[in-house]
Specification:
Blueprint (H helix, E strand, L loop, with lengths): L1 H5 L10 E2 L36 H15 L12 E4 L2 H10 L5 E6 L4 H6 L6 E6 L10 H11 L1 E7 L11 H14 L2 E5 L28 E6 H4 L8 E4 L2 H14 L5 H10 L2 H28 L3 E2 L7 E5 L10 H11 L1 E2 L1 E2 L21 E5 L4 H27 L1
Helix pairs in contact: 3-8, 5-6, 10-12
Length: 404
């Protein structure tokens, strides 16, 4: 976005298309609950909130998970299993700061912010785990077991659905993942910020919470918030759901890292966590974003970009190797796109390398690009048109050079 700004981009500029957008559109959607546009505040709303969050909000989060995923189960989440933080990065930073001298597994490709996060404290060793395109970026529970045992992992961090590939662990496979964590005492940290953006039949949301046996014993940590799944990124309200000792640890970390989440924004979140409202929002997201997903998938494929259809999230992870140079690399397409008013994210940004410990060589994601269908439909259409014109122009140049 810094580079786009240097080229004249400003948010809302109708001459640009931001297919690099990492947040969903925030306006009204067909069938969705009305958007919040006012927040009445009493005088005490301007006080500090507790580091672990307002008790009533923590209780709402726990109740939502119990209603969605733990009906009929003996072990139920309570407010003691929840900590509120000022955004997803803060939640992750709190958690990572509590890790001791240990081996921590992370996936390639994955969320770009993990690189700085996993390199910030220096108290543990981050170890990359590879998801391969030929398997649709799947990673089985048996592979997880082998990696935990073979590399001595005590923690594994992942986004599910995955950013940027859209790969999803769900159903019986997710249950087996949780079982591996339980049996091997490996803490599984699930970043579930895209768990409303699921393209499965029947319609559903997905969470590891469904397969936890004992909420205070199973080493499963869930991170989520209003940013993506409720489409309120500016609220900066996120939560950690975990066994009580982990909640106590991340709360202690929050006291010196950032001091806790804004009280007014937590008050705003209370009504949004009503189970029926959350269900309605998730269903509206699925219907609306499914249409945008189908459009972008079809358009990219027609333009020669190879895309594995995402099962979740709002990104298409595309191999641009077949496009004319320089558009056949992520950085080449990114730079050419900026000149034409198009923003994309080069795949190399997702080849996270904490501490820069891997040798310098061409990234395995050199020829990949993340295309977002987070923006409104009109902006996605505009982005596809710019990309189409860009590809056509470079093909004409290639043919002209070949003739000469």
């Amino acid at each position: 976005m810094t580079e786009a700004g240097k080229h004249g981009y400003r948010p809302g500029d109708p001459s640009w298309a931001n297919l690099g957008q990492g947040a969903p559109e925030t306006g009204p959607l067909p069938g969705a609950p009305p958007r919040q546009n006012a927040l009445p505040l009493a005088d005490d709303a301007f006080e500090y909130a507790p580091i672990d969050g307002l008790p009533e909000l923590r209780e709402r989060v726990a109740n939502l998970y119990n209603a969605r995923y733990r009906r009929g189960k003996k072990s139920q989440y309570t407010a003691a299993n929840v900590a509120i933080s000022p955004g997803g990065r803060a939640a992750l930073t709190r958690l990572v700061s509590t890790l001791g001298r240990t081996n921590v597994g992370h996936f390639l490709p994955d969320y770009t912010a993990y690189e700085e996060l996993l390199d910030s404290f220096g108290t543990f060793v981050p170890i990359p785990l590879i998801r391969r395109p030929e398997t649709g970026y799947a990673f089985s529970a048996e592979e997880l077991r082998n990696e935990v045992l073979g590399r001595g992992l005590s923690t594994v961090v992942l986004s599910n659905p995955a950013n940027p590939t859209g790969a999803l662990i769900h159903g019986g496979e997710l249950e087996r993942w949780v079982r591996v964590g339980r049996e091997l005492r490996c803490t599984l940290v699930f970043d579930e910020f895209y768990s409303h953006y699921i393209y499965l039949d029947p319609p559903q949301t997905v969470s590891a919470a469904a397969f936890v046996e004992d909420v205070d014993e199973d080493p499963v940590v869930i991170l989520d918030g209003l940013t993506k799944n409720w489409r309120y990124p500016g609220y900066r309200v996120a939560w950690t759901v975990a066994p009580r000792p982990i909640i106590e640890a991340v709360t202690s970390a929050g006291s010196f890292l950032e001091g806790g989440c804004s009280r007014p924004m937590q008050l705003a979140a209370l009504t949004l966590l009503d189970p029926e409202l959350a269900r309605t929002e998730a269903e509206a997201i699925r219907l609306h974003f499914s249409r945008k997903r189908a459009f972008l998938l079809e358009a990219l494929t027609a333009l020669g970009v190879r895309v594995h259809p995402p099962q979740g999230g709002f990104y298409c992870w595309g191999d641009v190797s077949d496009l004319p140079p320089p558009l056949n690399t992520g950085m080449g397409l990114f730079r050419a796109g900026l000149e034409a008013g198009l923003i994309t994210v080069p795949g190399v940004f997702f080849d996270i390398n904490p501490g820069q410990r891997r040798p310098e060589r061409e990234s395995r994601f050199e020829h990949f690009v993340r295309f977002s269908f987070g923006p409104p439909f009109a902006e996605i259409e505009r982005g596809v048109n710019i990309l189409r014109e860009l590809i056509a122009a470079h093909r004409r140049e290639s043919h002209a050079r070949a003739r000469s």
